[in-house]
Amino acid sequence: MMPFDSGLGRNTANYAALTPVSFLAWAAEVYPERASGVHGDRRFTWRETYQRCRRLASALRGLGVTRNTTVALMLANTPEMYEAHFGIPMAGGVINTLNTRLDADALAFMLRHGEARVLITDRSFSALMAAAVERSGVPLIVVDVDDPEYDGPGERIGSFEYEALLASGDPTFAWTAPPDEWDAIALSYTSGTTGDPKGVVTHHRGAYLAALGNILAWDMNSFPVYLWSVPMFHCNGWCHAWAVAARAGTNVFLRKVDAAAMLDLIARHRVTHFGGAPIVQSLILNAPEECFAGIDHTVRCFTGGAAPPSAVIEAMERRGFLLSHIYGLTETYGPAAICAKQPEWDELSKAERARLNGRQGVRYSVEEGLTVMDPQTMTTVPADGETIGEVMFRGNITMKGYLKNPAATEAAFAGGWFHTGDLAVLHPDGYIKIKDRSKDIIISGGENISSLEVEDTIHRHGKVMACAVVAQPDAKWGETPVAFIELKDGAEATAEEIIAHCREYMAHFKAPRRVVFGPVPRTSTGKIQKFVLRERVRSSAAIDV
Ligand code: ADP
């Protein structure tokens, strides 16, 4: 036996299972009196948040939650949602955040498939959740959250009320780290841009590393003031819930994304960090000028979840926000790649910087691999900025797998890499640029058209608020691009004008053949549901040009 293999084992002095829950214990120990959160008139310190989470954990134990028990959450971005991100794993349970925009059938499926035992639900979702619980046929213990910031309709539907439940819990509850850091911490169903919900299971170790990875990628200073515009139900708020605790920051809670409300909170609480899909940035950029009054400090913003149009990146820079472009999936704990800015880029023109920043970039320092491969041969594509392949990740912030779905898990990990389903090119500097999701690419007359490229061009037309380009079956060309466009408030444009604009900036075959004006369907995280649009174009009777 080699000397390094003997007498040097693990013990409690030199090893602890990694869990992001420990960040909360640390924040409460080191900064007990600092503000952990603000929600309307409610204020919390890190001491209070830790106590509330321990009360929650002990109360959940009382309700039968133990190792691997699924606890479902149907909550807005409120303090209770934040507390659940610590209290549930402290009790050994698995956090199952539910997407607040889904319908009762989809939610019933998730409650059943995820084998939830407890459901914590905000009163505003009562009617929907009552139907979902009934349809699920699952005997759930339901806990109501009655947020004082919410005064709309909705009856309580549970046998417990959150604050009363907390009051019954033990504020000194002696939680322990999971027996194994590979234990599940969260179950998240993919949000449905592809119409195929799968239960992504992540673990304590990955969540710990992903939180730190965000801090490193974002150069997140101590005591950040973090505005909750990314829904916490989406990949646990991109793992930012745990990152804020690790930096003893202040959470500024937000029930609903609204540009004026966000800008008001940014000014009032001197918010330093927030994130959101590109549509969130577009909303902010279109807010009336007076909403920006009082913002005279540095605000850092993470954008991702969908490709940000370069026009949006440029405009955010002009507004003075420090924008970082990130990329990832629920399967990679949210962001696992960032378009890392090279200092030399500062010398370049705004447009050139926006072009470079529009790329999805390079791996987080806590992820081991990110590349673009031919998925059949599993060889890396040439770094020529032209050859399209599939984006692949590997490393410690990649999920455990899909719950009760070995076939999908095996396919996702084929060849020792995680297959994202995103199509991209590799640039000579090693940065990736996504061209499309595999299902979204348009093939017209045998030529590939990147729907993202067409959308980016359309976005450069000043009257466009949001757009999506999908394939329309065509007898002659196989497929042609059709554009769905949402105009800015009060703006007017014609299809001819949009098509002429595209033909001016792109090869003519890439210009949309048809343009449909009107609202585009989105997921609750702001992503456009292209499968809905594809269904719409399939019955071309539904299209009015
Ligand atoms: P869903 O698959 O249900 O939409 P996710 O939220 O996990 O769920 O979405 C991940 C997908 O979002 C990625 O596979 C990619 O297609 C898209 N995406 C995320 N970030 C970016 C980005 N920066 N640029 C382009 N696409 C992105």
Structure explained in plain terms:
By secondary structure, the protein is of the alpha/beta class. Among the domains are: 17-203, Rossmann fold (3-Layer(aba) Sandwich), CATH 3.40.50.980; 365-437, Luciferase, Domain 3 (Luciferase, domain 3, Roll), CATH 2.30.38; 441-543, ANL, C-terminal domain (GMP Synthetase, Chain A, domain 3). Helix content is 30%, strand content 25%. It is built from 17 helices and 27 strands. The strands form six sheets. It has a nine-stranded mixed sheet, sandwiched between helices. Helix 10 packs across helix 11 and helix 12 packs across helix 13. Residues 541-545 have low confidence and may be disordered. The structure holds adenosine-5'-diphosphate. The site of adenosine-5'-diphosphate has 20 residues, from strand 14, strand 21 and strand 22.
Show the helix and strand layout.
Blueprint: H1 21-30, E1 35-39, E2 42-45, H2 46-62, E3 70-74, H3 79-90, E4 94-97, H4 104-113, E5 116-122, H5 126-136, E6 141-145, E7 160-161, H6 162-168, E8 184-189, E9 199-203, H7 204-217, E10 225-227, H8 235-238, H9 240-246, E11 250-252, H10 259-268, E12 273-276, H11 278-285, E13 300-303, H12 310-318, E14 322-329, E15 334-338, H13 350-357, E16 362-363, E17 367-374, E18 379-380, E19 389-395, E20 401-402, H14 406-412, E21 418-426, E22 432-437, E23 442-444, E24 447-449, H15 451-459, E25 464-474, E26 478-487, H16 495-505, E27 514-517, H17 530-538
Parallel strand pairs: 1-11, 3-4, 3-5, 5-6, 6-7, 10-11, 10-12, 12-13, 13-14, 26-27
Antiparallel strand pairs: 1-2, 8-9, 9-20, 14-15, 15-16, 17-18, 17-19, 19-21, 21-22, 23-24, 25-26
Bound molecules: adenosine-5'-diphosphate (ADP).
